[in-house]
Every structure is written in structure tokens, then in C-alpha cells.
Amino acid sequence: YFGGAGMKIKLFSISLILSAAFFVLSGYQDAWSAQKTVRFKVPGITLASSGAAASFAAKLITGVTMADDDIMEQKLTVTFDDKKTSVDTIKDAMDKATFPVDGEVEAVKQ
After folding, report:
1. E runs forming strands in 1-110
2. Cα-to-chain-centroid distance, residue 73
3. What is the pLDDT of residue 109?
4. Buried (b) or exposed (e) across 13-40, using 16+ Cβ within 10 A?
5. Distance of alpha carbon 13 from alpha carbon 19, whole angstroms
6. Theoretical Cys-Cys bridge with 40: which of 31, 36, 86, 101, CB 3.0 to 4.6 Å?
């Protein structure tokens, strides 16, 4: 017994503050990181199999949460966590996976 309702409220407040501090300090602030979606022109996407391979390669990049190919327009749409990767990193990885990006990157509104 800790001495009444006032003490219980103080203990609850302290535990709430400590929980919030632990949440922030333990790295869970990444839950609020920004998801960005961009569209790349990838001339190597000419068949369904190459589109699937390009999407698969993009999904292997840390921070990429979605990749979708459009073989008709030879484009790859990629959604990623901007705290874990960047457009330049994705472009470099796609180049290494033999799917070089051509031209400007298009931002996609979410």
C-alpha cells in the first residue's frame, strides 16, 4: 500500500513518462519516418520477366517497401522509407542489378 490515491496518480505519471522516454530513446521514432514514392524510367524492362526481376531487385534494397513495374511504359514505381534509403541509393542498386535508370526521377503523390 503506497499511501492513497494521490500517490497512485504520481506513480502512474512517473511510469507514463518513463515509458514515453523509453519509446523515444529506443528508436521507435522511426514509426514516423516518411514514405516516399518515386517512378524511374528503366529501359531494360521490356518483358514481364524483366519487369518482375527489376521489382524483385528493388525490393531487396533496405528501406524499399514496395516496387511495381509497368512494362508498357518501361517504368518502375518504388515506395521507400527515406530514413533508410534514398533515391540515389536505389538508382545505384538498380544499376548494379543491370537495370540502369534513365533520365529524371518522377515523384509520385501519395
Report:
1. 35-41, 64-70, 75-81, 102-108
2. 24
3. 83
4. eeeeeeeeeeeeeeeeeeeeeeebbbbb
5. 10
6. 101
- Residue 80, number of CB atoms within 10 A of its CB: 24
- For every one of its 110 residues, what pLDDT tens digit does the chain have, with 9 covering 90 and above? 455 556 566 655 666 565 555 555 455 545 566 899 999 999 999 898 899 999 999 999 999 999 999 999 999 999 999 999 999 999 999 999 999 999 889 999 87
HSE (side-chain half, CA atoms, 13 Å) at 98:
3
CA atoms of 81 and 107, how far apart (whole Å): 14
Scanning the structure block, which residue is given the C-alpha cell 518501361? Answer: 74
Instruction: Give Cβ neighbours of residue 9 (< 8 Å, ≥ 6 apart).
Output: none
Q: How far is C-alpha 105 from the geometric centre of its chain's CA atoms?
A: 17
Q: Tell me the three cell numbers of residue 46.
A: 521490356
Confidence (pLDDT) at 104 = 87
Q: Rg of the Cα trace of the chain?
A: 22
